[in-house]
Amino acid sequence: MTETPRRRLGTLTALAAATLLAFFVAPNALARDSSVSTANVSDTFRQGFVAYWRSGSGDLPDRLETAVAFWFRFHLVKAGVSALLLAVAVALGVVLWRQVRQRTGGWPARVRLGLSWVSAAALGLFALVALVANVQGAAAPFASLLPMLTSGGADGELAATLAEVRHQADASPSPRHSPALTVMAGDFAVYHAVLATMAAALTCALAVTGVVLWKRSRTSAEGRSRRTTVLAAVSSLLAAAWLVIAFANVTNAVNSQQALARFFAGGW
Fold first, then answer.
1. CA-based, 20 to 30 A from 252: which of 45, 99, 214, 263?
2. pLDDT: is 35 or 75 the higher one?
3. How far is CA 71 from the centre of its chain?
């Protein structure tokens, strides 16, 4: 039996809700092990980082390696769920858009459809940003964990360690730098390079989409032309936003030690 639009819409809505729930629940459930989860990864990383810096080696100690490995798995699972959520949001948006274009029913029904489509678009944007962020986190899990060192304040050994890190990061390149700082700067470069690459790809895709929609708006009927023009404008604005993100991250990737110094000084 052919699936009706209403049933298809209901199926996609239920799938979107289930996937959104999985986005918040599944990563920790699937990535955790007997020693590390989201409940204690911050403390584990902080303690491991102090030992790492004190060791004078570029090799991660077991405690730190465990936290980084968990964070990699966590982001990998979350990226997979984000990709699924994005696919469901796009399918839901397509179904709703077709119904909006049909102009069936009175104004209340059409307003509800319009709001539903906007909600699907917002969900898709959320899933896209989450996918980008989690691919970035999986590519450079060590750098992704660094904000946990400074969030919530630091005292004792951690505060003293961060002061040493800041001092070395602020200094000009020197052979006396800790091997740990070299590893962090390298991972920081990867972290920003991955985001710059994805942001550049999205900039190109959105720019092309905007151009196509602008051209289509000139040949569409008046009602459809307004909607297509709005979509073209949104695509262009998003392309500009991702272009700014790409440029900023290229700069940080090329100058990773300076970016690392700014991070430990309170920036990112």
1. 45
2. 75
3. 14
The Cα 202–Cα 22 span in angstroms is: 25
| Single pTM value for the model | 0.88
d(CA 250, CA 180): 23
Report, in angstroms and rounded to the nearest whole number, the Rg of the chain calculated over CA atoms. 23
The dihedral formed by the CA atoms of 257, 188, 58 and 30, expressed in degrees to the nearest 10:
160
- Per-residue burial over 105-140, b = 16 or more CB atoms within 10 Å of its CB, e = otherwise: eeeeeeeebeebbebbbebbebbbebbbbbbbbbbb
Q: Which residues of 15-50 are buried (b: 16+ CB within 10 A; e: fewer)?
A: bbeebbebbeebbbeebbeeebeeeebbebbbbbbb
pLDDT in tens, 58-100: 899 999 999 999 999 999 999 999 999 999 999 998 888 877 6
Q: Residue type for 51, please?
A: A
| CA 2 to each of CA 5, 12, 104, 169: distance values in angstroms, whole numbers, following the listed order | 10, 16, 20, 63
d(CA 213, CA 233): 9
